[in-house]
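Meet our chain:
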Amino acid sequence: MRRAEPLRVGFVVRRYPRYSETFIVREILAHERAGLPIDIFALRPSIDSHFQDLIARVRAPVNYLNFPADGLLPEDRSAAMLTANDLWKALGDTARTVPGLWAALDDFQGEEARDVYQAAQLACQVRRKAISHLHATFASAAATVTRLAARLTGISYSFTARAKDIFHESVRPDDLRRKLREAAGVVTVSDYHLRYLRESFGPLAAHVQRIYNGLDLDEFPFEPPRDRPPRVLAIGRLVEKKGFADLVDACALLVARKRPFTCRIIGYGELQAELRAQIERLGLGNSVELTGARPQSEIIQEMRAAAVLAMPCVIGKDGDRDGLPNVIQEALALGTPVVSTDVTGIPEVVRDGDTGLQVPQRDPPALADAIERLLVDRDLRLALATRGRHLIEEEFDIRRNTARRRAIFEAAAAHFSREPVQEIG
């Protein structure tokens, strides 16, 4: 069937809003500026205590796919909290809006009860709001619910594969294989990701497209970094894969060398107490500060004032790793030189000696050396920053990159031919 009505896209996210997921908010804002009608569907309520100021600019309505246990505790409740009565009532309500739901249940064998429950709610919303295409912002739970809802309603779906949703030890290859097979479009965020998916899943990943996340470059004007104070900046969730423990150790080496500097680590997370104890143990209280979360407007000002952005990312013990941290692109756009590692897609942006400096993972001495080079060499800072800004302009303009994503949505919705399931008998 071919779509006659205007394109309307449902964005399916795990939680909304999320302090750390500005890349999703930026994508939605760019689509809205281009005139694309969007509805946001969230599987979970937010558990964050801080929110980015960008969120206030989003016009899309937010719909929560309610779950009986939501709100009881600020942690995810297991599918066991969903009673049989809850599930059957939801399915019965959905069947009145989505003919053929009962016939589809055979295809849902092996799926988590919660995912089926929320897919039924999403299918109802698709019908009521005349959604013509669904897009999941991650390949994990959001894509699972999206796939099931698309199966019920007969519309197309796509998803973006980013980081934990494809690299973590909890990822089920059979589940990801099925999503790749059925999705009308798949986006991933770096050439590294694209190679990984094609090497791991062969022809099923042939249609995956690499489209970088993007920035509104008008909001990130370049400023030459030649004359900046000796300030090191790090930004991100305080979790293992960010490598901030290595940064603290590198700062201890710089202090031992009597190198004047300060380091500010912006973010919050599960390792906050551990990092604070490390800073105290190494006597770095006057040099290294954990600032907690900050709004995007303040983060931009922090980047403008820093001589170096340090992102010593590592591959976690559970396989978790960053895809391509957006703060790296933000720093390069603003003219702040970057030191990072070779994790996943980072070398595509931090090209050693060209657009930034690259050091091995879990190597505090090498990290300290690279940071010190940028603190003392103003000409090197300027050269790296200038080439870094050029790369961002060429590859990370959000208007161009979201236009490519909209083309995927348009093509999928226009040419998708699967009919919704029909009631048997």
Observations:
- Residues 70-80, 421-425 have pLDDT under 50 and may be disordered.
